[in-house]
Records
---
Amino acid sequence: MRAIVQRVTSSKVETDKEVVGEIGAGLLVFLGISRSDGSAEADYLAEKIVNLRIFEDDKGKMNCSCLETGREILVVSQFTLMGDCRKGRRPSFVQAAPPDQAEKLYAYFVSQVRSKGLEVATGRFQAKMAVSLVNDGPVTLIVESK
């Protein structure tokens, strides 16, 4: 599992010009799921992301997590994160999980983050989405399961 995590002041995702998910200050998480991923990888990544100390404390140091600050999280499924661009000019997506497996793990990951007591918004699985965000910092991290 691979995630691109961005600290944002706001973010939203639209499908067919309808807002399907929106947050204020928090994290935008683009989530890619591979064929070899399972619940253990989702558990690991959810725990890691909600505990990332990337929000500023009262001294201006990145020392606080979403859990500590109660920030919101927007999770958007993005199979292209599993694209392999090492050969040729066209990405290979053979490592990306098939839709049925990916959708189940995406929903499971979202439920794990919600179980921590955080507000979680989502995109719409397999839909063409328009994602907008205001990156705060900017802070952008790549987080991967083991």
Note: The chain has three helices and eight strands.
---
Amino acid sequence: MDKDIEIRRLLELMPASGRMLTKIIDKPKQSKLIDYKFPRPWERGDRLIAINFELWQRLAESQRDLLLLSVVCRLTGIRWFKPDIYQGLTVVGLGGVALQLWQKDAVGLVVAASLTAIAANQIWQNYRSTERELEADETAIKVAIRRGYSATDAANSLRVAIEKTAEIENRGGLNFTDLMRCQNLRVKIGNQVSALE
């Protein structure tokens, strides 16, 4: 497999937001087939997706496509500065910390800092949850449909890719999140087959 040709093909497959926010790099020494660093709120620049192309070629093209789309959708779905309740609480908490520092109120400072920490932790946990993985899979399937895949083929390709990735990486089985993802995809495939009957 020529990695440069494969990277160009994968870039064309991605949605426009994926091409703008992510960058694919070759990492031949990594033990994972595909990996990414979870972006921090203060980090700017491309969100890197590292692929071991020697392992990557063990998957069928449709499986590679869906696996990459899922990772891209996962990374582009992380928006640290999208207004919601926890981000509002974090901002209020930071304002409270500043006010309590200015007033030199130790108790108020502890309360404001605690509020900030709880709200920020909730945001962090929300973006790292299994639910976000399932949402990324759903979005990846929608992108794949726009690229010519049927919904059933896309869901099945992603399910097989998740299972084969664990096998290729010699993990000895699927972790909890991967099991949930596969189960969700099986349900989706079953629902689509039932709808066709």
Note: The chain has nine helices and three strands.
